[in-house]
Design a protein that fits this description.
five-stranded mixed barrel; single chain; globular; 40% strand
Length: 179
């Protein structure tokens, strides 16, 4: 019998999960950093003019703050199929250990759980990699795809991180270049 499953969101899943969940908590993933290094031609850009969305890169000593969603066993297969489709543009699933806060807005790391996260690897066809913050912001400003303007994605992410009391210097620096 399958029990409930945790999903870690660090990008658009923070503010737009688009799936049913039983519980939502602030979560921290150690050893990873959020970067706008993944191209998006299916959501925030188009072929030939990709947007930039976040992925996680391994970064010893770093901590990525996001949101963990607990999904029930009765909807697990449907939610994972939905996320597999939503994150099809270069992302794959990885199982990680997360620290969950005691409450949705708490900051104390109190519980460790196993969770699934979607991240993009450099070998995927949509990978854009590192660039200067100004270059990333310019590409985000210009890109628009079926899910809307890439700028909206970046600013919503910055707002969502602010609401979580999460300091992500790179996301906030890019957002400052977009306003």
């Amino acid at each position: 019998m399958t029990t409930s499953t945790w999903i870690f969101g660090y990008g658009s899943l923070i503010w737009r999960p688009s799936f049913p969940f039983v519980e939502r908590r602030r979560a921290v993933l150690d050893g990873f950093a959020r970067r706008f290094w993944q191209g998006s031609t299916d959501h925030r850009g188009v072929p030939g003019a990709p947007g930039r969305v976040v992925t996680l890169i391994e970064a010893p000593g770093e901590r990525c703050v996001g949101v963990a969603y607990r999904i029930g066993a009765d909807v697990r297969d449907d939610v994972l199929a939905h996320l597999d489709h939503r994150e099809k543009g270069g992302y794959s699933r990885l199982e990680v250990s997360l620290f969950l806060s005691e409450s949705a807005i708490g900051v104390a790391d109190t519980v460790t759980v196993s969770a699934l996260v979607y991240l993009a690897h450099p070998a995927n066809d949509e990978w854009l990699g590192a660039a200067s913050l100004a270059t990333i912001a310019a590409q985000i400003r210009a890109a628009h795809g079926p899910s809307g303007p890439n700028r909206e994605y970046a600013l919503c992410l910055a707002d969502a991180l602010h609401a979580l009391d999460a300091n992500d210097a790179e996301v906030h620096a890019i957002a400052a270049l977009l306003v």
